[in-house]
Design a protein that fits this description.
Bound molecules: 1,4,5,6-tetrahydronicotinamide adenine dinucleotide
Distance between the termini: 38 Å
Strand order of the largest sheet: 3-2-1-4-5-6
CATH class of the largest domain: Alpha Beta
Length: 314
C-alpha cells in the first residue's frame, strides 16, 4: 500500500440490501473519509446513513456517513459503487432483470458521471456483464475507470466450498473464477490451490465437479432460500474490497469484469478476468495461456454476454 494522504470519498448508489451491506463494510473497514449512500426512495438512505453513523462510538471510526437523494452530494467521489436496480426473485434469471435495470443504470450513470467525472465506477447491478457495458458506454469514461463486480463474489464462494471440503482456513484457498457472472462462469480448477497445493491433488474429480457446479449456481442457491431477494453480505464486501484496492492503491489481484480489447482473444465486451486494481482503476489485465477446454468455456461466456449486450440496445 502506498502512502496517500488525500481525503477519500466513496459513494454508493442504491441503499438496498447490497448498497447497505457495502456501506456497513466500508465504514467498518474505514476505506474512505466520507461515505455517501444515495437512493431514489426518500428517507431510506438518510435513515440508513444515520443508523450507520451512530455505530461510530462503538466502532471507533471517524468517517462521515451521508444519506441523500441528491447526486450533488456525491460530487468528486473517488470511487462510486453502483447497486441501484432490481434484484432477482425465485425463478428469475439474471437476464430477466435486463430491461428494467438498463433504464435505471442509464439514469444513474448520467448523474454520477456529471458530478464525479474522474471517479472509478464499480458496477454491481445485474446482469452485471451487460450493466457494466452500459455504464461504460453512457459515461464515456476511460475503460480503466469502469469495472464490474462478480468474480470476487464468485471466487469467494468457490474458495468457501473448497475450504469446507478440505477443512482448511478459507483465506489459504486461492481459486480464481473467470467469464460471465452466470451459469457459464468458469471456476478455474487447474489454478485452484490450497497453500500452493493444487486442489486436483487433494480432492476427487467428483467432489471438484460438485464444488464447481455449486459455485456456478451459488447465487440461485441463496435466492432459493431468501425468496424475496438475493445475496447481499458477500456482494457488498466484494464491492468494498475492489473499492478499497483503488482508494488505497493496494494493487490487489482480483477477478473483475473489465473491457477487453484482444486479451484472451476477446474484444468489445466486459468479461471477468484477473486484474490489478490500483489508484488508476484497472492497472493491468493478467493475461495467461488457457487450456483448450478453458478457452472453450470462456467462449461460451462470450456468447452469453454478447447476447445480453445486444439486448441493451446500445
Ligand atoms: O455479483 C453481483 N454483481 C451481484 C449483483 C450480487 C448480488 C446482487 N446483484 C445485483 O445488485 C442484484 O441483482 C440487483 O440488480 C442489484 C442490487 O441488489 P439488492 O439486493 O441491493 O437490491 P435491492 O435491495 O432491491 O436494492 C436496490 C435499490 C433499492 O433501494 C432501490 O430503491 C434502488 O436500488 N433504486 C435506485 N436507486 C437510485 N436510482 C435509481 N434510479 C434507482 N432505482 C432503484
Amino acid at each position: 500500500m502506498r502512502a496517500n494522504n488525500k481525503k477519500k470519498k466513496l459513494s454508493i448508489i442504491g441503499a438496498g440490501a447490497v448498497g447497505t451491506a457495502a456501506a456497513q463494510w466500508a465504514v467498518s473497514k474505514s476505506v474512505a473519509d466520507t461515505i455517501v449512500l444515495l437512493d431514489v426512495v426518500e428517507g431510506l438512505p438518510q435513515g440508513k446513513a444515520l443508523d450507520l453513523m451512530q455505530t461510530s462510538p462503538l466502532h471507533g471510526f471517524t468517517a462521515a456517513v451521508v444519506g441523500t437523494n441528491d447526486y450533488a452530494d456525491t460530487a468528486n467521489s473517488d470511487v462510486i459503487i453502483i447497486t441501484a436496480g432490481l434484484a432477482r426473485r425465485p425463478g428469475m434469471s439474471r437476464d430477466d432483470l435486463l430491461g428494467k435495470n438498463v433504464q435505471i443504470i442509464r439514469e444513474v450513470t448520467e448523474e454520477v458521471a456529471r458530478y464525479s467525472p474522474d471517479a472509478c465506477l464499480v458496477v454491481v447491478t445485474n446482469p452485471i456483464d451487460a450493466m457494466v457495458y452500459t455504464v461504460f458506454k453512457v459515461s464515456g469514461f476511460p475503460k480503466q475507470h469502469v469495472v464490474g463486480m462478480a468474480g470476487v463474489l464468485d471466487s469467494a464462494r468457490y474458495r468457501t466450498f473448497i475450504a469446507q471440503a478440505l477443512d482448511v482456513a478459507p483465506s489459504d484457498v486461492t481459486a480464481p473464477v473467470m467469464g460471465i457472472h452466470g451459469d457459464n462462469m468458469l471456476p478455474l480448477v487447474r489454478l485452484a490451490s490450497v497453500g500452493g497445493v493444487p486442489i486436483e491433488m487433494l480432492l476427487s474429480r467428483e467432489k471438484i465437479k460438485e464444488i464447481v457446479h455449486r459455485t456456478q449456481c451459488g447465487g440461485a442457491e441463496i435466492v432459493g432460500y431468501l425468496k424475496t431477494g438475493s445475496a447481499f453480505s458477500t456482494p457488498g464486501l466484494a464491492a468494498v474490497e475492489m473499492a478499497q484496492s483503488i482508494l488505497r492503491d493496494e494493487r490487489r489481484v482480483l477477478p473483475c469484469a473489465v473491457y477487453l480489447e484482444g486479451e484472451f482473444g476477446i474484444s468489445g465486451i466486459f468479461l471477468g478476468v484477473p486484474v490489478v486494481l490500483g489508484e488508476n482503476g484497472v492497472e493491468r489485465i493478467l493475461e495467461f495461456p488457457l487450456s483448450h477446454e478453458e478457452q472453450e468455456a470462456l467462449d461460451r461466456s462470450v456468447k452469453a454476454v454478447e447476447r445480453q449486450v445486444a439486448a441493451t440496445g446500445l
